# Entry
Amino acid sequence: MALIQLTPAERKVHRSEAHHLDPVVMVGGDGLTAAIKKEAHAALTAHGLIKIRVFSDDRSARESMLQLLAEELDAAPIQHIGKLLVLWRPMPAREKPVDENRMAGPREFKVLKYSKQAGQRPEVKTLRVLGNQRLSAGGQVKRAKARKQISVKKRSQT
# Structure
């Protein structure tokens, strides 16, 4: 597989994104095993950008590990600093699962209503809650709370 070619600007962006990441794969004394390659592949699929810590003092061995991992996992080598290797691969597009049993419309809840008179059994009521309503802790149906208005200045800051 060919390495992904990135421009220096793209590589710089990925380096800055990786700065705050913790290593998700650790390479021990056994070097690159099949299990480590499998874990790195799973992490790249899940996150896209990962850090790998190599517990080896040989710089050339770490350099070759970075190139080997990049080739085998079809990823781009972003950075090799100290004992940390950073790899990036574009994340695959995920399809949103469609729940065919899900239906729009009102929901029904069963609520226990206690009587105001002592000694009587509580009554089980079925309440219908519409999309713009909510069920309060006391078992009453209330309108959903209105969203807070955000000022134009605060909206532009986020």
Summary: Residues 29 and 55 are 7 Å apart (CA to CA). The chain has a mean pLDDT of 87. The radius of gyration is 27 Å. The chain is about 30% helix and 25% strand.
